Amino acid sequence: MAAGSRLLLLLLLPWLVMASHSPPGCKIRITSKGLDLVKQEGLRFVEQELQNITVSDLHGKEGQFHYNISQVKVVDLQLAFSDLHFQPQQHLVFNINNASISLRFRRQLLYWFFYDIGSINASADGVHIHTVLQLAKDEAGRLKISNITCNASIARMHAGFSGTLRKVYEFLSTFIVTGMRFLLSQQICPSLEHASLVLLNSVLDTVPVRNYVDEHIGIDYSLLRDPAVSTDTLDLDFKGMFFPRARENQELENHAVEPVIKETERMVYVAFSEYFFDSAMHAYFQAGVLAIELQGEKVPKDLEVLLRATFFGTIFMLSPAVDAPLRLVLQVSAPPRCIIKPSGTSVSVSAFLNISLVAPGRPPVQLSSMAMETKLSAKVFLQGKALRVQLDLRRFRIYSKQSALESLALFSLQAPLKTLLQLTIMPIINERTKKGVQIPLPEGMDFTKEVVTNHAGFLTVGADLHFSKGLREVIEKYRPAPTAPTYPSSRPAEPSMDPRQL
């Protein structure tokens, strides 16, 4: 019995593994070259955060000396040596070595009856900061910085003193400099933790996860699993499924080939499987918008003449409705299918065309109902962050759903109907797909120098990145407006300038 159970488990194991690993419809790879660009922008952001460090006041007493150090401000940063790299399995490591931080603060000193006040310039040298960011998928399927580990140290610190009591300050420099060094080192990591877990995560919130494409369909870009980090790359697996807005919870199973990205030469690679495009066409089909109707003056005149001649006998028997306007209804009969090969991308469409006479005040009279099979070539390209598709008619065939004899009679309509599709229908379709769909990148980051490459079952877009907006600009754009503080009826007294009252 136990042996039978083990055998059943072995037989089911491959199926269970496949079930637990849903293939992505969209995959993004960020390479070390892309990370170098992120480091440049990230370093500017870190400089801005460290310049806003708030250091507590330092005050104390040594014998008859009373001292107070306040209004500490960072006036300059030198982050000459920095490094940002991948660390398997889910981490980014950011190091700053041998940096220097210049400070200015207000001094107050009382020694017996001598009182001195002024400013001091100080410098913290040999600053080392080591941070490890853990990346993960949150409950909504969004990429987040889930945790940060930070260590900061200052090798040495010195201060320059001036004024009437310069010798006294030099005597007290050990207490002051040691205290300032401790306070400063204690503020570096909390500042970077807030910058990562709050501010940088607010930038990641701008990545589209589940949003609407147009009035008919939406796109689900939720992450399927935590990011996979190697020493050279970061891979993100997105669901990449479109859905009709009328049935937002509808799921379409993914049986397509999983995209495989092997390249690392460009900053970023985006891969799309056939499932990505199939789900879009399935969603449009479910939304009931894959239909076009032409009636009256919208029907090209030469085609109208040919149709009336082709169905003359039927029309003549319908007298007095001979002069009634024609109506053509083109309706897709099944969700179109996308086929991606190294040679190119194509879309197979099955539809039917109903031709009717529509007399005013009378029900329409159907002249013919023919089936159509078309194959469209698809040119996929990126413009900005929008993925767009340009379709062109490649092959076209019509036949009767009733008899082979009627199919033979419809042969004369093959060329004019193909012209109708090329000149009238295809421009309408391409106008509808002109907007495209946004790629899941944060706001302020865009693609440049895109190159599309076809593979068997998927295509990849290799590109470089650039920042059209800085991190600080995006953060400030989405920062909640501050609420007005509520003050008590009597405002607190101004702080005393006398260090004896400390």
Please give a structural write-up.
The C terminus is likely disordered. The protein is built from nine helices and 22 strands. The termini are far apart. It is 28% helix and 41% strand. It is elongated and about 120 Å long. The strands form four sheets. Strands 14, 15, 16, 17, 18, 19 and 20 form a seven-stranded antiparallel beta sheet that branches. It has a six-stranded antiparallel beta sheet with strand order 10-11-1-13-22-21. With 502 residues, it is an alpha+beta fold. The longest helix is centred in the middle third of the chain and has 39 residues. α3 crosses α9.
Write a brief structural summary:
Helix content is 28%, strand content 41%. It has 502 residues and is an alpha+beta fold.
| Outline type | elongated
Structural class: alpha+beta
- C-alpha end-to-end distance: 81 Å
What composes the largest sheet? 7 strands, antiparallel
Number of strand elements? 22
Helix content range of the residues, please? 25-40%
Instruction: List unreliable stretches of 5+ residues.
Output: 13-19, 487-502
- Please give the count of helices: 9
Alpha-carbon Rg, integer? 35 Å
- Percentage of β-strand residues: 35-45%
